Amino acid sequence: MSATQKLQQHPVYIQAQDKASYYVNQLDKELTKYPVLNNLEQRTQIPKAYAVIGGLVLIVILHSLNSLAAPVSNLVGWGLPAYLSFKAIESPSPHDDVQWLTYWVVFGFFNFLESFALRLVLYYVPWYFAFKSVFIVWLQLPAFRGAQTVYFSVLKPVLLNISSQNRSVAPVPTTNSQE
């Protein structure tokens, strides 16, 4: 019996293989909700779970090449959300509109803040763009409702505070003396 066959019969190997298979099947069930991925699977004959895992691995590899990290991170934040926003606009349901409007507000605010401190952040956080991409995916995924969480816990209180300050300093209307 070869070493490979011994390894494949080892209980730990079998248990790890069963767990991996279970998680891939769970991922496949979740990905079935997305018609784009179902269509991709039919066209390419590559299981959608493997395509998504492969895409994520590719993104990780591209993030490891420092010169590609920023464009890949921005593509993650813009590509799929732009397409899904288009689909939301065309759908009759308002629920997906709220999801993507909230995402774009949070994403825009995040990019605005990033523009001020990017050099400093890059100096102190070596894998910043990888972390940014994970954060952006968290914002996007409806299962986590990341964009809504950030909006309601951070942005809305700040914007309401600014709005209330602007109202308190609003100019007093004057009467028109040319009557």
Commentary on this structure:
The protein is mostly helical and 179 residues long. It folds into 2 domains: 9-64, no CATH class; 66-156, no CATH class. The chain has 8 helices and no strands. The model has no long low-confidence stretch (mean pLDDT 85). It is a multi-pass membrane protein. It holds the Pfam family TB2_DP1_HVA22. It is found in: Membrane. It comes from Candolleomyces aberdarensis.
Short description:
It is a multi-pass membrane protein. The chain has two domains: 9-64, no CATH class; 66-156, no CATH class. Helix content is 82%, strand content 0%.
Write the layout of secondary structure elements.
Layout (H helix, E strand, L loop, with lengths): L2 H7 L1 H21 L3 H10 L3 H17 L1 H25 L4 H30 L3 H13 L5 H23 L11
Subcellular location: Membrane
Pfam family, one: TB2_DP1_HVA22
Membrane topology: Multi-pass membrane protein
